[in-house]
Write a structure and sequence with these properties.
Blueprint (H helix, E strand, L loop, with lengths): L9 H12 L3 E6 L4 E4 L1 H7 L3 H4 L4 H4 L4 H14 L3 E8 L9 E11 L5 E10 L1 H41 L3 H30 L5 H31 L5 E3 L1 H18 L2 E7 L6 E3 L1 H20 L6 E10 L3 E8 L27 H11 L3 E6 L5 E8 L7
Parallel strand pairs: 7-9
Antiparallel strand pairs: 1-2, 1-5, 3-4, 4-5, 6-8, 9-10, 10-12, 11-12
The chain binds adenosine-5'-triphosphate and magnesium ion.
Adenosine-5'-triphosphate binds next to helix 10 and helix 11.
Length: 396
């Protein structure tokens, strides 16, 4: 098969050179599966020298994977038809000692009479490609999981926003923050989609995918910052300051909550000290506080075992320095282990609660320079009080 240098024309020499230097493995085997010719690349793949191949059978050269290969060669010899894209997995004698993946194409070389004399084979080592595919599949799944998680978070966030907007008179502020949040979240989605497209296009550039993933992490951090800023803004919302007569404010507010109270068989009464001094406050925000406290009290009465209950709103003043508002109910009270957490945002024990009510109360009361506290009552129920200084310490 190998022409000697003297006999060969320059064209043949060039072909021999090409065969030898080809970047894929090439060989020719005879009807007994003995190597007749082999190029440098296939010697590398098989981990053996040319001499260890020529004249030896596939079984001798590749004992671990010959069972997968020889039937293909036999099929080409028997049928006279090529076999393409045949994948083989296993170890050769090449250094590294790890299982590899090879892709083989086998073609018949016939005599003039048409009999298949030899099989010509091309082999590619596609281990790295398969590994990259596995890595991409994993990355892809990770990205998809991340997008799903972010979408779920966005949905839950917007539910919380709706709730906050209802519980506080800050709908507009919340709307603009939600809008701002949308930007990094859309960027995350767009980047994730780009990465997916990229990977599906085949032969992806890992460096570029890494950069996309870094962008996603960056936008994620930005979304987190916006959320933290929302909290700060909520705390700073000082609102307007005017002279507010709290007994009048509560009196005007009670009819608004009457039907809810009736539904829970809760009786609400107002007891006010005479000549209650006015406070300087934002009346809309104070109504918000009263409403959140009364809603909680009504919930507590509704879920207590007794038939209906009493809620008392008590207004008092200490030495012309401050006004105290106390909302007491005889509902189920607060379990001792959670009493320390009720003002923490998103702490709730209610199936449909979001745990916003009391944290908003605390934010508003503190923005007015006041304090708020909670205690359980004996034999049952609980009492939540807030104290407002007559002159607001943090008036805008
Ligand atoms: N009057 C009360 N009696 C018993 N438990 C109360 C009372 N007020 C508050 N709590 C407890 O404190 C938790 C937090 O109250 P908070 O008002 O912050 O949230 P929530 O009422 O659960 O939800 P929402 O955001 O709708 O107000 C409640 O889930 C409840 O366990
Ligand atoms: Mg509440």
């Amino acid at each position: 098969m190998r022409p000697s240098v003297n006999e060969a024309s320059s064209e043949e020499l060039e072909l021999v050179h090409l065969y030898e230097q080809a970047p894929i493995g090439l060989c020719v085997t005879d009807r007994q599966h003995r190597y007749v010719r082999i190029n440098r690349r296939l010697c590398e793949i098989n981990g053996k020298s040319r001499e260890e191949h020529i004249g030896h059978t596939i079984h001798e050269v590749l004992p671990d994977i010959a069972n997968q290969i020889v039937p293909m060669f036999q099929r080409v010899i028997d049928s006279g038809e090529p076999v393409r894209g045949h994948e083989v997995r296993g170890e050769t004698a090449a250094p590294g000692g790890e299982a590899r993946v090879f892709l083989g194409d086998h073609y018949p070389l016939r005599s003039e009479g048409g009999r298949v004399l030899y099989v010509h084979t091309m082999v590619q080592d596609i281990t790295a490609q398969r590994r990259a595919e596995a890595f991409l599949k994993e990355t892809n799944e990770e990205l998809e999981a991340r997008v799903t998680q972010r979408t779920a978070e966005l949905e839950s966030l917007s539910a919380q926003f709706v709730h906050i907007a209802r519980r506080t008179a800050m709908g507009e502020l919340v709307g603009s923050i939600a809008h701002e949040l949308n930007q990094p979240l859309s960027a995350i989605l767009a980047n994730a989609e780009a990465a997916l497209r990229f990977m599906e296009a085949g032969n992806p550039d890992m460096q570029e995918i890494r950069e996309i993933l870094q962008d996603i992490v960056k936008d994620d951090t930005r979304a987190g910052q916006i959320i933290r800023r929302l909290r700060t803004l909520l705390q700073k919302q000082a609102g307007s300051r005017e002279r507010v007569q709290l007994d009048e404010l509560v009196d005007q507010f009670l009819p608004l909550i009457r039907s809810e109270a009736l539904g829970a068989r809760a009786r609400i009464t107002l007891e006010s000290a005479p000549n209650l001094p006015p406070v300087e406050a934002d009346p809309v925000q104070l109504q918000q506080v009263i409403m959140n406290l009364l809603t909680n009290a009504i919930d507590a009465v509704r879920s207590s075992t007794s038939d209906g209950g009493d809620i008392r709103v008590v207004l008092s003043s200490i030495r012309e320095k401050s006004v105290t508002v106390t909302v007491r109910d005889d509902g189920r009270g607060i379990p001792a282990e959670s009493i320390g957490q009720v003002f923490t945002a998103f702490f709730t024990t209610k199936p449909h609660g979001l745990g916003i009510g009391l944290s908003v109360c605390k934010t508003i009361v503190e923005a007015h320079g006041g304090t708020i506290s909670v205690e359980n009552l004996v034999p049952r129920g609980c009492s939540i009080s807030f104290v407002l200084p007559l002159k607001s310490a943090t008036a805008p």
